[in-house]
Design a protein that fits this description.
This protein has 445 residues and is an alpha+beta fold. Among the domains are: 20-105; 255-445, no CATH class. It is 50% helix and 10% strand. Strands 1, 2, 3, 4 and 6 form a five-stranded antiparallel sheet that branches. Strand 2 (141-142) and strand 3 form a beta hairpin. The protein is globular and about 65 Å long. The N and C termini lie far apart (47 Å).
């Protein structure tokens, strides 16, 4: 994987593999690296919560680096999977492995110059450079679907240009099929649970994320709904330079919000960032009716000068129906009241449980939901630095998952909302922040 340069940009990269067999080979090699790191039996046992070291995934630094290098080289849906894995932190992976996995959040391998120029010419024409006074060929960021370049137009606009990796859009279906094939081959899904809705929704969302015209429309719709919120900055879209594979936006400075855990930033800054993003999540769900469902920490930049948070990447933006909002509101009330019967009814309404679910399984799921609701029963700021709630929920949920306690996925409409909920929870934990979630939520109930 290419390294970041001292100025924060990236060096030369490698071509994006585009053929299905080539991508299956790379994915198979990545899986082999995992297996080699802990042993195949150990990998399966660890996933099934029968490992040691408190349930941590025991990957050596060498195996982890090979694994992340491989995903970074592939980009696309496979790397998106790795990004989600990387957000689990040092209490799921060993600290050494977690640190290396975290590089997937903002350090994909960029495409080589030849591929970049090919995309620019195909989208803007051979004379594309006529638009710019300055174009920085070294990307300032590279993620799973594209990389970002700084540029200044001849009329003085400072832009961030998100350029899509060639072949990524065309590889989504094969990536999803390959992941499904390997997850089944390694026995990583519990018996009796059909993963088809999960893969189908992932396929739909990734195709949406790969359409930059759709993302431009989502960004504009979101900006109109959020309005002039002083805590946030939403970049404007520049339609004259945006295509289905290039998204031109206002350039905004800032550091990835998870970097606030560095000693250079104060606890007050960490608390403020976590509180603002938690408030934003509640506002998205209960007020705006539109949610950005990709909680990758790199999608939030903290501007130390203004204290604002820059919101990036609206490819995974989803509208939320009034019916679904009311079901979450009902479940939140039940969790705050510690009402097990109402929590069970809420779980049925959201598709977590079948109406005729076996009583023992239903009770186990309600207890897991009750455990997760600890934050909502807490009055005043919840101190994530002093809490081991994530570890308790993670270990209990994984044990239930692989003991076939779950027999169905929730409705596809809510499936990726969970990603956002968990992502904000993990960010609060990463920043060791104090957040009064109950106080914020009461406003919407």
């Amino acid at each position: 994987m290419s390294e970041k340069n001292p100025d924060g940009t990236f060096g030369a990269g490698s071509s994006v593999p585009s053929r299905r067999l080539s991508r299956l080979w790379h994915l198979g090699r990545a899986t082999t690296d995992l297996a080699a790191g802990i042993g195949l039996r150990g990998m399966i046992d660890m996933a099934r919560a029968r490992g040691d070291a408190g349930g941590r995934i025991q990957l050596t630094p060498e195996a982890t680096r090979r694994f992340t290098d491989r995903l970074g080289r592939m980009r696309g849906a496979v790397m998106k999977m790795g990004q989600l894995m990387s957000m689990d932190g040092a209490d799921v992976f060993t600290p050494e492995a977690a640190e290396i996995m975290a590089t997937l959040r903002d350090r994909a391998e960029p495409m080589p110059m030849s591929q970049l120029v090919q995309v620019l010419e195909s989208e803007w024409g051979s004379d594309w450079n006529k638009h710019f006074k300055r174009f920085e060929f070294k990307p300032v960021a590279a993620a799973s679907i594209g990389q970002v370049h700084r540029a200044e137009t001849r009329d003085g606009r400072r832009l961030a240009l998100k350029v899509q990796f060639p072949g990524v859009r065309e590889s989504i279906d094969s990536d999803i099929d390959n992941i499904r094939f390997l997850s089944k081959s390694f026995g990583m899904m519990p018996s009796g649970l059909d993963p088809a809705p999960l893969f189908d929704e992932a396929r739909r969302q990734l195709h949406q994320e790969a359409d930059y015209q759709a993302e431009a429309a989502a960004l504009e719709a979101y900006s109109a709904k959020i309005g002039a919120d002083p805590d946030f900055f939403v970049p404007g879209v520049h339609r004259d330079l945006s295509t289905s594979r290039i998204l031109a936006m206002d350039f905004a400075d800032g550091v990835s919000v998870d970097r606030l855990d560095d000693v250079a930033y104060t606890r007050a800054q960490r608390d403020a960032a976590a509180q603002r993003l938690t408030r934003l999540l509640l506002r998205e769900l209960f007020e705006l009716g539109i949610v950005q469902t990709d909680p990758n920490f790199g999608n939030y930049l903290f501007d130390a000068d203004s204290g604002r948070i820059v919101l990036l990447d609206f490819g995974a933006t989803s509208s939320v129906s009034d019916t679904l909002v009311e079901r979450y509101r009902t479940l939140a009330r039940a969790a705050m009241a510690d009402d097990r019967t109402a929590m069970r009814d809420g779980a049925v309404a959201l598709g977590y449980l079948a109406e005729d679910a076996e009583p023992t399984r239903a009770a186990a799921l309600v207890e897991l939901m009750r455990l997760s609701g600890e934050i909502l029963r807490h009055h005043g700021p919840y101190d994530f630095a002093a809490s081991d709630l994530f570890e308790r929920v993670y270990n209990r949920g994984r044990e239930m998952f692989f003991n076939d306690a779950f027999t169905r996925y929730p409705e596809p409409e809510s499936l990726f909302l969970h990603r956002k909920f968990v992502g904000i929870f993990m960010l609060c934990r990463r920043l060791r922040a104090r957040v009064d979630l109950r106080g914020m939520l009461e406003h919407y109930l």
